[in-house]
Amino acid sequence: MLTRDDPDLGALLDAEARYQSGCLSMVASASLAPPSVLCANGTVLSSVTAEGYPGARYHPGAVHFDAIETLAVERAKRVFAARYANVQPHSCSSANLAVLAALLPRGGRLLALDLDAGGHLTHGARASVSGKYYDVARYGVGSDGTLDYGAIRDRALEHRPDVIIAGASAYCRYIDFSRFRDIADEIGALLLADISHIAGLVATGLHPSPIDRAHITTTSTYKQLAGPRGGLILLGEDYLRTCSDGRTKLWQLMQRAVFPGFQGTPDPSSIAAKARALAIASSGDFHATMKRVVDNAKALADELQALGYKVLTDGTDNHMVLVDAQAAGLTGIVAEQALEECGILGNRNKIPGDLLPPTVTGGLRFGTNILAQRGMQPSEIRMCAGLVHEVLSQVRMLTPTLYELDATRRDAVRERVTALCLRFPVPVDRV
Ligand code: DSN
Questions:
Q1: Would strands 216-220 and 190-194 be described as parallel, antiparallel, or unpaired?
Q2: Which of 73, 125, 345, 359 has fewest C-beta within 10 Å?
Q3: Residue-wise pLDDT tens digits, 328-369
Q4: Domains defined along the chain, listed by start
Q5: Which protein residues are within 6 Å of ligand 1, measured from CB?
Q6: How confident is the model at residue 125 (pLDDT cuts 50, 70, 90)?
Q7: Atom of ligand 1 nearest to the CA of 169
Q8: Could you tell me the distance, in angstroms and rounded to a whole number, from the CA of residue 169 to the centre of ligand 1?
Q9: Candidate of 26, 120, 222, 366 to mutate for ligand 1, largest count of ligand atoms within 8 Å of Cβ
Q10: Where are the alpha helices (DSSP H) in 34-175?
C-alpha cells in the first residue's frame, strides 16, 4: 500500500531492504529487528496520545495502551530479573539524561569513562549537555586497554562524584559492576550502569548483570535487543531505596524523572515493539543467537590478529572487536569507506591514545550481532575477516581522509560479499 500511495518513498524503502540484505553489516551498535517487532512498531497505536503511566494518564482512551505498556514493563522485569522497569524513554540517551537530571543538581559531580577511551556522549562528554551541566571527571583504561579499577577508585576518591557511570560504547571486555559498586559505596555515590551495547548478553547471562549491583541500569532497545529505537530504565534490589529527601523511593524518582521530568507523551508504538522484542529476548533462540554473537566475535578477533592486525585488549569478551587502523597504516575513516565500497560495514572509532579527530579516528570497530542473527558461525566470520583483509591490504592511503582502491579488486570482493549474503539471507520470516 505504501508503494502504491507513495512510490518515491516505497522505492527508497525497498532499496534499503535490498541494501541491508546485500551487505555484511558489522556495525557494533546495530542489529536486525525481527519482522514482528517492525509490525508492532507500525500500528494503530500511532494514533494514541496518552501522557502519564498506566492507570494514571492525562488523556482518555488509553485502555489498550495501558495494557500494552504494563505488558512491556512486566516483560522487561522478567528478562532482566529487575524489580522496576520504565519503558518510556525514547532512547537510552534520553534515559541517561533523565536519570542524571533526577540524581544531580546542575554542577553536580559525575565520574564516567572518557569518550576517547570508549565512553558515550551522554556520559559527560564535552559536546553533550551531560558534559556542560555537570562537573565531570573522566577515567580511562590502563596500558593494556582494560579498565583499571584501582585507578578508577583513585579518581573517585579525588573527585568525590555524586554519580559514577559504568558502561561503554567501545569496550570489548567484561565490565566488573561489583567493583564499580564497591567504589561507589566507599564514597557514597550512586552507580548508573549503561548496558546499551551488551543488553542481549546480560539478558541471556553471557555477561554479568548489573541489575542488583548498580543502583540504576539503563539500556537502549535497538542495539543488542533487536527492538525498536528506544530505551529502558531498570532497577534491582535498590528500587525501594529512600532518596535524599527522606521520602521518595528510587523507583518513584525514576517514574518522575522520565515523565514529567524529561519527556511528555510516550511513544505507544515503540512501547509495543519493545514488548515484542523483550518476549523474543527471553526465547531459547535468542540465547543461541547471543552465544553465537560472542563465539563469532572471538573468531573475528583471532582471525584479524592472525592476519596481522592489532586488536585492542588482545581479543574480546562480548560482541565487539576494536582494531588499531593506524597500526595497519590507515585511518579509521579510510578503512571504513574502503570497506563500505565493498559492501562491508564497520565504523571508525576513537581508540585510547588516539590523537586524530572523531571524524577521522585511528580505530575501527566491528560487531557481530547482525551476522550472528543471519546465522553465520565462526567459520564464516573468519571468511569475513579474510574479506576485510583483502580490502584493507589493497588500500593506498593518499591523505588521512583520501585513498585509492583498485576497482578490479573492489569488484572481486563485492562479488564474494554478495555470494556470502545470499547464503545467509536476512531472516525475514523467522519470528
Ligand atoms: N553510541 C553509538 C554507537 O555505539 O554506535 C550510537 O548508538
A1: parallel
A2: 359
A3: 999 999 999 999 999 999 999 999 999 999 999 999 999 999
A4: 39-281 (3.40.640.10), 284-423 (3.90.1150.10)
A5: 29, 120, 169
A6: very high
A7: 4
A8: 6
A9: 120
A10: 35-40, 63-80, 92-103, 129-133, 149-159
